[in-house]
């Protein structure tokens, strides 16, 4: 017995319910991808399924729209699988238990996958329709967006003629996203040498910082534990001979480091001064970040005398210099969009290994050249210190296009349909649109979506009326595609 039967738009809700019956967590997308292929085959539509399970489906223009530019409609097939502790559903093999009160749709005990199943359902409903006018439609359904935009990165674009794209993967109705950041992970390697040294081992820890996503939260200017540790080590080593023994800060390049621990060796006579200096730095740090990191803890534990391998003084100075000198946090703000971080970097990980200290950054910018400049700065310093910088996970940004016709049309239709002005927004994090903008030169793109709450959690829910308005918006934009 269908659960969403009474909801409209009927066809969209019907497909959403069918999709929800197929397990489709990230990395488990073969079944849902095959479902889309069977859908295309049953309707005689041209399609392409690639080895990672992305699916592209083409529907030719309806009568009168043959000469108008093709429009790409895009969403992702995979969902985040989260469930309540007591929930017995095996999300690898079982479908979701949908529920609705007419106003909202959710899944009992699990994530709903409205992110991004509603986009897939709308795309299928459009492909299935025979009464909706549109230019050539190119539906692109990607996989593994939630674990690093992997499907979009692997996608072959040979079937795509369109340079206009509507991405349906936002979760606030009325917000048109028109730019996102590109990013890269930069790993700065600084060579180190070790020596056997006798003295007092002291353990320093900075913990309890607020942390958070290095794209979304970087604007808050909160403390980064690796940066503070660099400052503390620099300050202490200017007062006394200090040798680094271990260093471990942060969990991921794209998370603001919430904790960092270091072990250092000093001489026995310096212990009291070391304690005093550490306490005064702790006071300074807590005062500077009182507003953003109220739970900051800085501790210093002095062990017994020992003789162990430590970094030489020169190697300690090299590592400290990198942590002191390399930039961190917001670098530039957008001149086009008030409040948007344009370029930033985050010193996410600091680790001392056998042959090198490795300091890893997540570098982000909506301007490719600014991203490159920051990478050059990191490389510059590591080269001077005899090291090198390696890069991974590079993905392009999606720069603001002041002349976007698609943005203007979507905003106009939205205002006519709802009586409200659309909010134009850019985000300082990665979106699939960035990858597409990199692959399809000249792409004019917007990202929209219906109201959803608590995505990626078992409390996720999708607003029914908002989904209907978003559907009407897409249909009307396609009907007016002649204006593009
Ligand atoms: Zn999504």
Question: What can you tell me about this protein's structure?
Answer:
The mean pLDDT is 95. The protein is 30% helix and 29% strand. The chain is elongated, with a radius of gyration of 26 Å. Strands 9, 10, 11, 12, 13, 14, 15, 16 and 17 form a nine-stranded antiparallel beta sheet that branches. It has a six-stranded mixed beta sheet with strand order 1-2-6-3-7-19, with helices on both faces. It has a four-stranded antiparallel beta sheet with strand order 4-5-21-20. With 484 residues, the protein is an alpha+beta fold. It has eleven helices and 21 strands. The structure holds zinc ion (ZN). Residues 76, 115-116, 145, 169 line the site of zinc ion (ZN).
Output the CATH homologous superfamily of the largest domain.
Answer: Zn peptidases
Beta-strand content bin: 25-35%
Shape, principal axes of CA atoms? elongated
CATH class of the largest domain: Alpha Beta
CATH topology of the largest domain: Aminopeptidase
Assign the CATH architecture of the largest domain.
3-Layer(aba) Sandwich
Helix content: 25-40%
Instruction: Estimate nothing, just give the exact number of structural domains.
Output: 2
> Radius of gyration, Cα only, in angstroms?
26 Å
From the N-terminal CA to the C-terminal CA, the straight-line distance is: 43 Å
Q: What's the tally of helices? A: 11
Poorly predicted runs = none
Structural class label: alpha+beta
Mean pLDDT: 95
Q: Main β-sheet, in a few words?
A: 9 strands, antiparallel
Q: Give the beta-strand count.
A: 21
Bound molecules: zinc ion
């Amino acid at each position: 017995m269908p659960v969403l039967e009474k909801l409209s738009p009927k066809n969209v809700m019907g497909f959403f319910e069918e999709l929800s019956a197929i397990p489709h967590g990230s990395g488990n997308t073969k079944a849902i991808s095959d479902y889309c292929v069977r859908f295309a085959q049953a309707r005689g539509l041209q399609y392409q399924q690639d080895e990672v399970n992305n699916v592209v489906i083409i529907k030719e223009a309806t009568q009168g729209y043959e000469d108008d530019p093709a429009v790409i409609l895009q969403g992702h097939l995979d969902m985040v699988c989260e469930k309540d502790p007591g929930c017995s559903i095996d999300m690898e093999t079982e479908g979701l238990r949908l529920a609705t009160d007419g106003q909202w749709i959710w899944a009992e005990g699990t994530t709903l996958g409205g992110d991004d199943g509603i986009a897939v359902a709308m795309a299928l409903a459009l492909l299935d329709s025979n009464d909706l006018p549109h230019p050539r439609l190119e539906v692109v359904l990607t996989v593994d967006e939630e674990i690093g935009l992997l499907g979009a990165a692997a996608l072959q674009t040979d079937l795509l003629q369109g340079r206009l794209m509507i991405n349906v993967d936002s979760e606030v109705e009325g917000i048109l996203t028109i730019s996102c950041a590109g990013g890269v992970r930069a790993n700065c390697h600084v060579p180190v040498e070790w020596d056997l040294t006798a003295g007092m081992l002291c353990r320093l820890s900075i913990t309890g910082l607020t942390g958070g996503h290095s794209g979304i939260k970087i604007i808050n200017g909160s403390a980064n534990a690796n940066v503070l540790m660099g400052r503390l080590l620099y300050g202490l080593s200017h007062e006394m001979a200090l040798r680094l023994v271990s260093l471990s800060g942060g969990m991921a390049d794209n998370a603001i480091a919430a904790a960092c621990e270091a072990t250092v060796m000093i001489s026995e006579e310096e212990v009291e001064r070391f304690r005093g200096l550490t306490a005064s730095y702790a006071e300074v740090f807590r005062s500077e970040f009182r507003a953003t990191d109220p739970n900051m803890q800085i501790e210093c534990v002095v062990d017994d005398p020992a003789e162990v391998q430590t970094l030489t003084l020169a190697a300690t100075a090299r590592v400290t210099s990198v942590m002191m000198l390399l930039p961190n946090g917001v670098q530039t703000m957008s001149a086009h969009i008030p409040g948007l971080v344009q370029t930033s970097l985050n010193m996410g990980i600091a680790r001392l290994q056998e042959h090198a200290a490795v300091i890893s950054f997540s570098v982000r910018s909506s301007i490719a050249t600014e991203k490159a400049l920051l990478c050059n700065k990191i490389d510059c310093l590591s080269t001077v210190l005899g090291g090198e910088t390696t890069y991974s996970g590079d993905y392009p940004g999606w720069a603001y296009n002041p002349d976007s016709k698609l943005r203007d049309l979507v905003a106009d239709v939205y205002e006519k349909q709802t009586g409200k002005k659309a909010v134009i927004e850019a985000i300082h994090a990665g979106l699939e649109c960035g990858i597409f903008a990199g692959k399809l030169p000249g792409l004019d793109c917007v990202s929209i979506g219906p109201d959803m709450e608590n995505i990626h959690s078992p409390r996720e829910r999708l607003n029914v009326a908002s989904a209907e308005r978003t559907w009407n918006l897409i249909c009307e934009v396609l009907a007016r595609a002649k204006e593009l």
